[in-house]
Structures
1.
Amino acid sequence: MSSPYFFILLPLAVFFFSLVCGRYPVDIKNVFGILISQVYPVTPFWPEIDERVIINLRLPRLLIGMLIGAGLAVSGAAFQGIFKNPLVSPHILGVAAGAGFGGVLAMLLSQSSLLIFIFAFIFGNLAVLAAYFLARKDSVTPVLVLVLAGVIISAFFTAMISLLKLCADPQDQLPGIVFWLMGSLISANYEKFGLIVIPFLICVYILWRLRWRINVLSQSDQEARALGVNVEYDKWIIILCVSVIVALAVSVSGIIGWVGLAIPHIARMIVGSNHLFLIPACISLGAAYLAFVDTIARTLTPYEIPLGILTAIVGVVIFGYLLKRNQNGGWNEY
């Protein structure tokens, strides 16, 4: 098991790396001075443009990116545990597709960021409720049936997104919709950060507190009940928290895939499958990962690359490695 200092220092290192790097580089000394000046009076020794770049552009984007990365990674680990499947992602129950539909619908009605946030959040959670009621029978919700219901709901909202894109103005609305659906933090600001930070942290905290129960739920339901766990209740607390996290993430950044699918596997390679250690590791790695990828997305080329493209490329590489590992009998570790 890796030292806990690694999981503390990694996000901090990526945090300062992301503030320094960009098409307009900022000296690390200036970064420290600008950050300290926000809480303690410091005589400016840096150009004013450096402060505007750090405080107005990079810092809110970085805070939202690290929050979303941590939330999606923890959500993926929790879902892979309760569904007993290493290929499950936080999007499996249709929440991302539902939130995507809500965001696109809001874009067609208005360009208000608040309306996009509200619609994405509402429709994301409605999608999960629809999957729940579709799968539930006789006060029981079998895991396999719930996953299949999620696939159905996801396919429905994906089709509805395509319908809305067909109705969008190809000159004024469609390019923005397509770019938003690919995922990006280009519109990040402190207002959006303020909207999501408290519910995000609450949900992540709940998943962290339930980490030992996720260990139990990753066994059979009979074993979990024998250990005194209320299986249905605990599963739905976890599903509710994950749904809120994903819906909030989509509402401010569009659909960013593969984070909740790939990062838990990387964390398992480092700390093992015990969720007591896996959940904190996912928080650290997820925050550092998405912040780093976003830095590459806004720095690599003159035009910003949508995050969903880069996270998909990295995810394919990771699962290609896992496929080869599986051929050698290593998948059982997951």
Note: The chain has one domain: 4-333.
2.
Amino acid sequence: MPKSVTPDYWDDACKHLSKRDRVLRKLIPQFGEARLQSRGDAFTTLARSIVGQQISVKAAQAVWDRFAEMVSGPSTRIPPAEVLELPADGLRAVGLSARKVEYLRDLAAHFHGGAVHVRQWALMDDEAIIEELIAIRGIGRWTAEMFLIFHLMRPNVLPLDDLGLLKGISVNYFSGEPVSRAEAREVSEAWAPFRSVATWYIWRSLDPLPVEY
């Protein structure tokens, strides 16, 4: 397991959010030293997100383990070039659907061919990175935003397509009444420039176990 990385802005974000938002002022202390953590490399993180689409966490892990074994042995770092060399029927045999095989190959082709600018990401804004990622088959805006939060650890991402975030805002700010994206965005205005951190704590209010990608 590669070493976990925690954002260096986390403590400052917690202080900022506690001053600006009454809900987060109460929520943040409940989770002690728990932090967002990033592991692995970019290609592997995105490949795992594709493998896990529309199946349970347990099933996704089983398929991933077989896939990783096939590529280069049990590993947390999958080389894109090796994925491109694997036959489709071999990938299907580990439990991947035909569509996921296509998605993984497209992802591998984008990384191997340099269509995504991994080394430039540090200098690119969030929307520019999202545009690069959603050009890959099987990756939509939600997956790209999760990647920004959990892998690149960008501090100010607000994933308005995330049902957990909308539910958490409903429960914590609107007494359980349904909320629109516009209402969620309005609540989040007080969170800037640390919307990712606020989102992480809103998720925790629904499920105390930290989410990892």
Note: The chain has twelve helices and no strands.
3.
Amino acid sequence: MSMYRLVVRRHGRLLGHFDTDVPGALAVVQEIAELLAGGESIELSLQAAEDERRWLETGPDGMRVIGREPIFRTLS
């Protein structure tokens, strides 16, 4: 399943981001971008997760993932 991030800035200042990996995520992010695009001085950038960093723990029962962080790249 793909994960997308919509980064929102206004006047160059980061306001935040929206991450989603629901079914149809790209269409969802594009719909949100359309809603925000009408705002004054709103800058949007779309990113897609291309990989992830994982934190692992090893113990007597084997290895398990204890955390993960998606690594995003900006789409053109």
Note: The chain is about 15% helix and 60% strand.
4.
Amino acid sequence: MNLLENLGIKVVEQSKKRVILEMAIEDKHLQPYKIMHGGLNAVLAETAGSIGANLNIQDAGFAAVGVDIMTHQLNKIKDGIVIAEATPVRIGRNIQTWQAFTHPKGSAINASLSTMTLKKVKVD
């Protein structure tokens, strides 16, 4: 089982300019204090940015992988559905930076900036 399946993350929209993910909060996503674990915001942000970055790759045999993420927890959430929306800040030939906001419908609970670089990958 991969990470997205395990956490219940669904890809709602994906393009070279915007990626939207959705996750219904379950008990497995909560800290002992019954609020969503902040690390999930980083997972959502990097996943969304990586999906978008990989859609922008022009060289076969390469994949965009995360090298840095900065995330700011702005608010807490206990239940419902969270949405992560990512858009590119810069799409370069070797490095891409994407910003992501995680929120329930309404206000942001997290703002993140992630950077991906190209790595040569073996295609089977």
Note: Residues 39-55 form the longest helix (17 residues).
